[in-house]
Design goal:
This protein is an all-alpha fold. The chain has 4 helices and no strands. Helix 1 runs antiparallel to helix 2.
């Protein structure tokens, strides 16, 4: 069973705007906490190779934060939960796991 296959007996097709905003806010706060922890850990005493790892981690977190902000915009403009490729609803189960998802699984993997 994939993340795009509704569970048997599942009735909800969409998250409410309130639920989406709560999940996105949680995701944002989690990522900001991660960035803060990386900054507080510092890189002064770390070998150069570890510094590159920390830098890559920060870049990844910033990229996810940008996706979260884009998802906030989609909530505001009424496009949250719709695949940006095929325009079909992204299953609730996927959005619960990845609240900033922009694509359904088939479109994400190019299988549509």
């Amino acid at each position: 069973m994939s993340l795009d296959t509704p569970l048997p007996g599942t009735r909800r097709e969409r998250l409410s705007a309130h639920e989406a905003l709560q999940r996105l806010e949680h995701e944002r706060n989690s990522r900001l906490t991660q960035l803060l922890a990386l900054d507080e850990a510092g890189t002064d005493a770390e070998p150069e190779s570890e510094e590159h790892v920390v830098s890559a981690q920060k870049d990844t977190i910033r990229r996810v934060l940008a996706e979260v902000e884009d998802a906030f915009d989609r909530v505001r403009n009424g496009r949250y939960g719709d695949c940006l490729d095929c325009a079909k609803p992204i299953p609730v189960e996927r959005l619960e796991i990845l609240p900033y998802a922009r694509f359904c699984v088939p479109c994400r993997h190019g299988t549509v």
